[in-house]
What does this fold into?
Amino acid sequence: MPKEERTERPSPAGPARPPDQSWAEGAEAVGAAESALPYEPTTGAEPANRVGGSGPVAGTTATAAARTRTVTTPPAARSKTGTAPPATSPDSASTTAARDSADATTPARTGGDAPASGPSGWTAQASTRAPQPAGTSTSTGAPQPAGAGTPASADAPARPAPRPGPARTGGRTRHTVAVLGAHLGGGMLAAILARSGIDVVLVDSPHDATTPAGETTVPYTAEVFELLARRYGVPELSALGHFGQLPAEVRRTSGVKSSIGFVYARPGAPVRPHQVVQFNVPSEHGESHLYRPDVEAWVHRLAAGHGAKVPQGRPVFTEVRGEAGDFTIELADGSEVGAAFVVDMSGPDAPMLRRLGPDPALRPLRHSSRVLTAHLRGVRPLERRVDPGEGGTPWTGGTTQVVFPGGWIQLVPFGDDRTGETALTSVAVSLDAKLWPQRSASAEEDFQQLIRQFPDLQWQFAQATAVRPWTGSEPWQYGANTAAGDGFVVLDRSAVRCDFTLSRDVTLTAELVHEAAAHLIAAADSGDWSVERFRPLESFQAALIEHGDRLLRTALTATTDFRLWNAFCRVWLLHSMFAALSLKRARNDALAAPGRADRWRELERYRGAGLWFPVYPGFVALFDDMDRLARQVADNRLAPGAAAERIFGQLRRASFVPPLFAFGDPTDRYYNFTPLKRVKVLLWAKRRAPHMVQRVLTRGATVLPDVER
It folds into this structure.
């Protein structure tokens, strides 16, 4: 992929607004968004219809029966890539209340629980297989390690009858779906599809073990994992969001994340005590530092235990031949695997990318930095050098971001002993190439030259040695121009790569698995595997890529001044907290309505700011306004301190921000959500919060108490 030439974004046509008018626009946007919905709920409103009509809910008895149908289509009936509506993403510059208030009337995108209307494309050739016990689910029938068990939760759908198994042609097995990439995302998707009765084979990629990947979660990530477990009946996946439920061997090498801290550093000077921020969130889940090799090995066993096929010996694929309905995947050991449909999650040189047209398949994102990564031993605990402060906890208890103008270093300690000389620490560095140009061909030497400019970091890494070698890439970030092709889709690390900061990598993977599973299950139910069937999935992925790009661009701008970073990280935390609570509410509302064919519809419409479930519009407006202010700072039209004060002003004035959080006070740099504070927030929610905010902070409308978690 060619190196991106970074250029300054031009100012809008016409004279810039005076700062006071700019502030008024932001305040009006957030204020108008708050008034877009009634304070109390209305009754009798008819929800917008989903595109393509309604259909059976994924995992129900109706869909289980649908998946047992034998459907064949002659080759001539297979659809070819044709003209289709382009993938869309939200307008990153929009902060108008009209977009937020229009949410209630926007038609929902096609979801995974119903077949799309219109002519069907090619349909998978059905074949026969008998149900296999956990531990023998491989393409060759060779024993494989069993998963962690497959008990169905009380609200999980009953396991559907398997689709008729694969027919053998020329000595090779043809499956309905092949997932390329046996990492976290590929393993989760294969487990869900197999649990839903779809004949799926999980194939290793050459890059699974070598490509650096995200290793941290936040409460919102945990809620997406919980949604995957509950909606698709794979209860083990909830353990990824509940650290104590992970197998002992995974817990031993990973670690609990009890906090996220931000330490602001300046070249040539020690860290100033008042320029640190720390959020201690006693999550109900137990957020995690995921040691990916062990986590992905466990997820792979889980997929096999649920019935996903695994080539014996796990050879990596070398090539993909054929066409929609009849792909042949060549493996490194000389064997072959056949599949009717391919989900390519293998990496940036994914084989299916080359089939997406003559134009470049990947584009550099606007946030284009170079990234250095490694696993080190001997990293000294930062709290010995930089005092977390009276209200803080040791930095090694959680994820630490050392932030400086033009970049950041993320520190992720693993295991129980995080302060000893043998402790393992993941280090991920992201640098604006303009401010921090590459000075050495060696990624390790480049890192050493960087930390020499920061006294505290030079001390911290003085005795560190690499366990996983240093890697470097410039630019690191990319996004796919399109994702749906004739007989395949390109997802996750094949279609997007973002920074590891703020848990974006793991979170994005979980979100894409949730959306892709819904569409693939619906395609299996309807027999429609056409390109058009997967355009909504393509649009959804594009919207999340755009959101991540906006978030990281804003973060990079915020590094120019501690005051602006202090404001930015509070909006990010508020966004993450309420996204988690809102998703939990939407999930519980759906689970409390068993038998309703449209119960997952509220999780099928993109609403801006990376959110695809019901959320109070004020959150979207606040995020959009922060993005607008950051762009003004980047264009030298607004001072960083002025932008920070305007964001703090929004946080102080917004009726949906609990006053107890003190997010609008720049001097309150430690967030400790104690049990007493939790009670006070609940009292505030019941008495003063807008109704939609009240619903996500209280149990409220949930019918089944056992649904709450």
